[in-house]
């Protein structure tokens, strides 16, 4: 017997699915449609990022590089090795998954700010490699990836919109499965207190590594799909810290503890980015805006918009309960202060 | 055939926290580890449970060498511990806190629901036994200090360790709870669990321990039953500084 909130949640998910699927039919022109593709692409990336960020609390700024690896692997396998596009995509996903093992082994040794820095260096190293290894990657001139379908531009966007939406559904499903599993509980205990989790018998290093690989595979698949869609890869855009920062912003904004948090965040940030580009062109202004927004979110909505909205609804629904909770929280704080004094 | 260390040593910079500590605890008993502040008791626990790598010496448990093993392996070998400053998972409910103490093994086990009926029943059993079942749905950060200490203990017990290391279980708790914790430790010991307890409350230590080890400056200076330790001159000296 499903509870009221469960029904509400299912209805919301169904509504979201319908909205996502209906978008290509109501998009007024190919430009809006292509912006839609980009937003769904971001939604996949942010959701993929959230396997690591949301469950374990490790903030990676390097996921742009994993997407870039997926894109270049796919592109090279199609353009240079002549593999069928979707076979190349699958191979790229597997390859980046394998590569994620040594990367994860190295990066997940350190925590907190050190991990952030290691993840940044991953991007910088790969950028250098791909810029200088020009015989294979096209260097700074870029790599042209042949289109998989001979279609008109709008049709091309339409198909890729649905491909990205399918990948998004897979990623969301996988996140949901882990979220409710015992493995997921172990990951969340790492987020809460890694040493304590170890002391309770959780193999934290292995846990982090597994979820990092899962995250890398989804990220690489999204990147590979992007290569097939966009058809032109430039190392500067593929291996950019900015992409990684956008993903962090999206996930944090939407809510990293929420299944659909990164999707909602991608919707908001993705649309905002497109708007900025149209209004102001490619200026460093959107960098400033991104930084500002990130600071605002971290300061005022540390749990993201989704929980903030849920809180708001609850507050209006039963204002009496919240007040009781607040009183007892104040009491608790006092009690704790006394206790802290008492142990001395 | 018990928890045993030989020559365990650890220095932090210039500070010697453990100075070749060779200790052997009694299986099936309530052991106490006492000593002045800074005598290395917590560091000893950290070395035994793998949280800190000792500079030298060995740790063995029931004949197995555990020196330098990862903490989760030591936990799975049957040694559970609490922390001096009480560590729970703040943004998990009390029930989830206890449930996360039985990590799955293997892929299939890992993908099973975290809320399996059998596990929930067992977890609720521990919460009930510690008298905090009414808080099962509350986040740990909303619990009082005493409740958090009970919750941490419930989590440790959920993993069914044969040996339990408690770092100051009575630290900062009220007298009524203190009594309950004492009774609980004796009960759990009667069911076959070995305890090693670091504690400053001498009334509690003397009333529940079978065997006491006294640390001073990173090594044991005396050991024996409470009656003997109470009158030991070296112990009095270490505590009173004479
Ligand atoms: N992580 C650490 N870094 C530096 N010094 C430490 C650390 N942990 C403990 N010490 C030092 O080691 C000594 C023993 O500390 P500890 O094991 O906490 O003693 P106890 O638990 O008996 O009070 C103290 O001098 C303490 O300051
Ligand atoms: Mg201590």
How would you describe the overall organization of this protein?
Chain A has helices at residues 4-26, 30-56, 63-79, 85-107, 112-132, 134-137, 153-180, 182-192, 194-199, 204-230, 235-238, 241-254, 261-280, 285-300, 305-317, 319-342, and strands at 143-144, 232-233. Chain A is mainly α and 344 residues long. Chain A folds into two domains: 11-303, ABC transporter involved in vitamin B12 uptake, BtuC, CATH 1.10.3470; 306-344. In chain A, strands 1-2 form a two-stranded antiparallel sheet. In chain A, helix 7 crosses helix 8 (182-192) and helix 7 (153-180) packs antiparallel against helix 10 (204-230). Chain B has ten helices and ten strands. By secondary structure, chain B is α/β, with parallel strands linked by helices. In chain B, helix 5 crosses helix 6 (145-158). A six-stranded mixed sheet of chain B has the order 6-7-8-3-9-10, sandwiched between helices. Chain B is globular and about 55 Å long. Chain B has two domains: 1-78 and 161-242, Rossmann fold (3-Layer(aba) Sandwich), CATH 3.40.50; 85-160, no CATH class. Classes of the chains: A mainly alpha (344), B alpha/beta (242). The A-B interface holds A 177-178, 180-186, 188-189, 192-193, 195-205, 328-329, 332, 335-336, 339-340, 342-343 and B 49, 51, 70-72, 75-76, 80-81, 83, 87-92, 96, 99-104, 109-116, 142-146, 155-156, 159, 171-172. Bound molecules: adenosine-5'-diphosphate (ADP) and magnesium ion (MG). Chain B: One of its GO terms (molecular function) is ATP binding. Chain B: It comes from Actinoplanes aureus. Chain B: Pfam families: ABC_tran, BCA_ABC_TP_C. Chain B: Residues 3-242 form the ABC transporter domain. Chain B: Keywords: ATP-binding, Nucleotide-binding, Transport. Chain A: Keywords: Cell membrane, Membrane, Transmembrane, Transmembrane helix.
């Amino acid at each position: 017997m499903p509870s009221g909130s469960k029904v509400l949640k299912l209805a919301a998910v169904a509504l979201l699915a319908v909205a996502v699927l209906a978008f290509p039919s109501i998009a007024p022109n190919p430009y809006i449609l292509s912006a839609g593709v980009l937003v769904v692409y971001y939604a996949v990336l942010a959701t993929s990022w959230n396997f690591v960020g949301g469950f374990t609390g490790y903030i990676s700024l390097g996921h742009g590089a994993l997407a870039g690896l997926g894109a270049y692997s796919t592109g090279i396998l199609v353009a240079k090795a002549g593999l069928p596009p979707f076979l190349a995509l699958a191979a790229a996903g597997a390859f980046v998954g394998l590569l994620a093992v040594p990367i994860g082994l190295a990066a997940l040794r350190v925590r907190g700010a050190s991990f952030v820095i290691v993840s940044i260096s991953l991007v910088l190293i790969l950028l250098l490699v791909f810029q200088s290894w020009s015989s294979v990657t096209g260097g700074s001139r870029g790599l042209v990836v042949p289109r998989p379908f001979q279609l008109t531009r709008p049709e091309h966007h339409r198909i890729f919109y649905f491909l990205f939406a399918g990948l998004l559904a897979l990623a969301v499903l996988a996140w949901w499965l882990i979220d409710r599993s015992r493995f997921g509980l172990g990951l969340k205990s790492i987020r809460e207190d890694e040493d304590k989790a170890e002391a309770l018998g959780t193999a934290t290093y292995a846990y982090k590594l597994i979820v990092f690989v899962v995250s890398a595979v989804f990220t690489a698949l999204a990147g590979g799909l992007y290569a097939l869609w966009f058809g032109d890869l430039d190392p500067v855009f593929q291996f950019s810290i900015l992409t990684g920062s956008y993903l962090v912003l999206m996930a944090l904004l939407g809510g990293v503890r929420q299944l659909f948090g990164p999707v909602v965040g991608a919707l908001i940030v993705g649309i905002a980015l497109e708007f900025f580009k149209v209004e102001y062109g490619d200026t460093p202004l959107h960098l400033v805006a991104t930084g500002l927004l990130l600071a605002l979110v971290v300061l005022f909505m540390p749990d993201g918009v989704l929980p903030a909205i849920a809180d708001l609804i609850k507050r209006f629904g039963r204002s009496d309960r919240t007040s009781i909770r607040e009183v007892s929280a104040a009491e608790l704080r006092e009690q704790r202060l006394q206790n802290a004094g008492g142990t001395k | 055939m018990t928890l045993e260390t030989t020559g365990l040593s650890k220095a932090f910079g210039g500070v010697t926290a453990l100075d070749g500590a060779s200790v052997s605890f009694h299986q099936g008993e309530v052991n106490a580890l006492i000593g002045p502040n800074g005598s290395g008791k917590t560091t000893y626990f950290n070395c035994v449970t793998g949280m800190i790598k000792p500079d030298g010496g060995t740790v063995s448990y029931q004949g197995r060498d555990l020196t330098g093993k990862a903490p989760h392996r030591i936990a799975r070998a049957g040694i559970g511990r609490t922390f001096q400053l009480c560590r729970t998972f703040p943004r998990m409910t009390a029930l989830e806190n206890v449930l996360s103490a039985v990590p799955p093994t293997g892929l299939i086990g890992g993908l099973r629901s975290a809320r399996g009926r059998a596990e929930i029943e067992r977890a609720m059993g521990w919460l009930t036994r510690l008298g905090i079942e009414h808080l099962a749905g509350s986040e740990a950060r909303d619990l009082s200090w005493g409740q958090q200490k009970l919750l941490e203990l419930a989590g440790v017990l959920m993993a069914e360790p044969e040996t339990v290391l408690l770092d100051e279980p009575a630290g900062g708790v009220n007298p009524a709870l203190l009594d309950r914790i004492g009774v609980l430790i004796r009960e759990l010991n009667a069911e076959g669990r070995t305890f090693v307890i670091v504690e400053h409350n001498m009334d509690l230590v003397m009333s529940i321990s079978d065997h006491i080890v006294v640390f001073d400056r990173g090594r044991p200076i005396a050991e024996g039953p409470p009656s003997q330790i109470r009158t030991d001159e070296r112990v009095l000296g270490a505590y009173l500084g004479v």
